[in-house]
Amino acid sequence: MKKFVLLVAISSTFIMCQKQTAKFEEVSNSIDSASAVATDAIDHASKTADMALDSASIKIKDFENTKNDIQEKIETTSKMVDSLSDKITSTKLESKIEKKIQRKKKRKRLW
Q: Quick one: three-class SS letters along 46-75?
């Protein structure tokens, strides 16, 4: 009977050790799979963030190009307005001078 009790105790100890080993392996596998999932999620988040930054960078460059185009158009328009203003001013001066000359001629004719 002692042998039987000893055999049962040893076999139950062995079975318990085997169960603990199996549980340890299950926990280890669970940790590995959780680690893999977390790594995939981090990689995906990193790729998404990189794409967003690239997109934002492209939009900023587009805004800068548009800004430069608008500034060039404003400068060109400003030059055209200045040129027209100068022409109008010179035309007014010429017409005033011509009117004065015509008045003088009329006065001379009247005399």
A: HHHHHHHHHHHHHHHHHHHHHHHHHHHHHH
- Which of the four pLDDT bands, split at 50, 70 and 90, describes residue 34? confident
pTM (two decimals)? 0.44
Q: How many CA atoms lie within 13 A of 108 on its CB side?
A: 6
Question: What's the rounded Cα separation, in Å, for the pair 45 and 21?
Answer: 36
- Pairwise CA distance, residues 69 & 63, whole Å: 10
Instruction: Report the alpha-carbon distance of residue 17 to residue 31 in Å, rounded.
Output: 21
Assess whether pLDDT exceeds 90 at residue 70.
Answer: yes
Pair of tokens at residue 101: 């000359």
109 sits in which H/E element: helix 2-110
How many angstroms separate the CA atoms of 56 and 34, rounded? 33
